[in-house]
Amino acid sequence: MTAGGDGLDDRVPFLARLEGGERQALLALGTPMTYAPRQALLREHEPSAHVLLLLTGWTKVTAAAPNGYEALLALRGPGDIVGEFAALTSKPRSAHVTALEEVRAVAVEPARFTEFLRSAPQVSMTLLALVSDRTRAADRRRLEFASMTVRERFASLLLELARGFGQRTAEGVELQVPLSKQELAGSVGASREMVQRLLKELRDRDAVVTGRRALVVRRPDVLRRIAGGGPWPSRAGALPPGSL
Fold it and tell me: What's this model's pTM, rounded to 2 decimal places?
C-alpha cells in the first residue's frame, strides 16, 4: 500500500496497508499469542500498554457504561491492530477486547512499538490514516443511527455485517462473525429482549434464518426497506438473485 493508506475504506486492516517489508519488520518485534474463544485479549481500564497485531480470528471491542450496559464498539479481525492508543498515550485501556473465536496474534511491547514508529515515519502515517478512517466511519455511523428507530438500526446493522462479514450459501448470506443476541443488542443500543423480538419478526417474514450463534440473511431487500424507514413487509419469499 502507498500514501499511508490515504482514502482507504476503514475496514482495510492495518497490516494490509503496510508494505511487505514494513509488515514483516513490525511482526518480528513481537511475541506470538493464542487466545481461546471468549477469552479477553485486553481489559478496559487496565494499565497494560502492549499492542496486539491480529493474525487470525475475530474479536469484539466493547465498553461498559456505569449501569453495566455493554456497548459493542467494533469488530476487529485478521490484519487489524488493537491496543495502540494505550501504547501511544500511556493511559489505561479505553475498551475491552474479547476473542469471538480462536485468535492468533503478535504482542509488541509499547517501547518497541513506539521506537519502530519513530524509525519508520511511513508506518506512523499509515497508522494515523487508519485512525482517521475509523473515526470518520464511527462519526458517520453515529449520525445515521441517531436519526433511526431501533428497528431501522438493527436492519442497517445486519446489512453492514452481511456486506463486511458474509459468505453466500444456498440459504442466503451467512454472517461469519459469531455474535450473540446480547452483542447485537449492544451494537444498536437496544436490549437483548428487543433484539429477540426483531429477529422473530424477521424470521416470520423469511428475511433471516437464525441458529445457535449463526445468522443467515435471506432477503437483504427486506432489510434495506426497513433500514430506509419503510414499513415491515408481509411474509417474503426466497432470496432473490443479486448481491447485497
Answer: 0.81
Residue 118 burial by Cβ neighbours in a 10 Å radius (0-12, 13-18, 19+): exposed
pLDDT digit string (tens) for 155-178? 999 999 998 888 999 889 999 888
Lookup: cell for 185: 443488542
Q: What is the mean pLDDT of residues 75-103?
A: 93
Roughly how many angstroms between the first and final C-alpha of the chain, as a whole number?
27
Positive or negative, the CA dihedral 226, 163, 145, 191 is: positive
For residue range 54-64, list pLDDT tens digits in order.
999 999 999 88
CB 162 within 8 A of CB 244: yes
d(CA 243, CA 220): 9
Mapped onto helix, strand or coil, the DSSP state of residue 34 is strand
CA dihedral sign of residues 146, 152, 154, 155: negative
Q: Which three cell numbers stand for residue 140?
A: 458517520
**pLDDT value at 71 more than 90:** no
Cα separation, 212 vs 203, whole angstroms:
14
Beta strand 59-64 pairing with 70-76: antiparallel
d(CA 180, CA 96): 16
* 122 touches 1 (CB < 8 A): no
Nearest-5° Cα angle at 39, 78 to 195: 85
Bigger pLDDT: 128 vs 228 = 128
State the Cα–Cα distance between residues 159 and 194, nearest whole angstrom.
18
SS3 string, 2-24, reads CHHHCCCCCCCCHHHHCCHHHHH
C-alpha cell at position 150: 431501533
